[in-house]
Amino acid sequence: MNLPLWIARRYFFSKRKRSFINLISLVSMLGVGVGTMALVVVLSVFNGMEELNRMIFKTFEADLTVAPAQGKRLTVSPGLLQTIRKTGEVSLITQVIEDNALARYRDGQTVVKLKGIDNSYLQRRQLDTALVEGRLRLQEDGVNYALVAEGVRNSLLISPEDMLTPLELWYPQNRKTYTVLSADAFNQANFLVSGVFFIEDNFNDFVLAPLSVVRELVGYQQNQLSSLELQVKPEVNIAKLKKSLQQQLGGKVVIKDRDDLNPDLFRAIRIEKLFVTVTLAFLVLIASINIFFSLSMLAIEKKDDVAILYAMGASPSLVRRIFLFEGSIVAFIGGIVGLVLGIVLCLLQQRFGFVSMGIESSLIDAYPVKLQARDLIITTLIVIIVTSVVSWFPAKKAAAVSKAVDSVQ
Questions:
Q1: pLDDT tens-digit profile of 184-227?
Q2: Using an 8 Å Cβ cutoff, are 205 and 196 in contact?
Q3: What pTM did the predictor assign?
């Protein structure tokens, strides 16, 4: 039998005397529970926001992107394509040329992000759920079509039903002998708008067009691209494939996943998550201060009992462990209750979406949450460390004071 734990349990669960100390202990337990629950819920919300952004990017971006390590142009050799295909884990390879261009429609004009793609992009079927008007097509019956984002459509007042008015795309030539005031200083291509898509504000300035036409517009050679986008087969470990391809293709190219393409956003989310974790840890610390007061008052109340224990041969470490176990009981019950309540709240939010984001244009109505075992472990460690530190000082003081009182007597 663990004597210190047995005595601490008797002190805490004793029904013979309900004092102010018991009330402080209950308040401490409640504070630790609420702080623990808040940590679980808030960390899960940040995880959900990360997953939401990945889901948004998945609608437009590929699983992996092969980009040049330096410069804007990627020279694609047959060997490079063969190396990618040899892996057997890539289902589709999309050739991409991407650059800024000037778009004109009737009397309006705006700068857009022009993305030249081949037909394999539509085979990925990523835009199927993002299409808000028109059809998904790039070339049909010898006619070149473009897909525009909602923001471009609104800026230029484009109508996909208008088959007479083309979308003009202008791109400056690389010849230094021309001036920007000359009409010959720009290459031009015309497209009919076949459809409008909406994903998220970050993609609201994109125009998708056939790769062959865009290549001629921007002046790329036949073996030059901006990037290769790789769609990976289901159940393939993207991280392992990314590392393997990087080793095989060498340092002239860089392999990026969706997180690598949007580093600033995910870095900001993780920094915010870190600061919120530290802030809530301080709230748990403040709530745990009540444990300090309850243990200090309990040491004063039980000094006669401790004197008897010393008379029976108890050591200071045994007395210290009694009060440490007393604080641990409060922290353990509060932490377990907080963890359970936090997990239950997250599961209910996932299932029913009680808390709405309040944004009409959002892809989802409710706040996204995602439980991760790592966050539960971090929360548990925070509660253990904070409550142990808070409990140590009154336990040590109680053992020293009680022994001193016993020595005087």
A1: 678 999 999 999 999 888 899 999 999 999 999 999 999 999 99
A2: no
A3: 0.75
For residue 345, give every residue at least 6 positions away whose Cβ sits within 8 Å of its Cβ, in sequence order, or none: 37, 40, 41
d(CA 300, CA 173): 86
Looking at the predicted structure, is the pLDDT value of residue 336 above 50? Answer: yes
Q: Is 261 exposed, middle or buried (0-12, 13-18, 19+ CB in 10 A)?
A: middle
Q: What is the DSSP string of 94-154?
A: EEEEEEEEEEEETTEEEEEEEEEE-THHHHTT-TTTTEEEE---SEETTEEEEEEEHHHHH
What's the helix, strand, coil split of the chain in %, to 5? 55, 20, 25
Instruction: Convert the pLDDT of each residue in 74-92 to its tens digit.
Output: 999 989 999 999 988 999 9
Please state, in angstroms and rounded to a whole number, the distance separating the CA atoms of residues 168 and 392: 74
Domain ranges of the chain: 3-57+265-408, 64-256
CA distance 369 to 114: 34
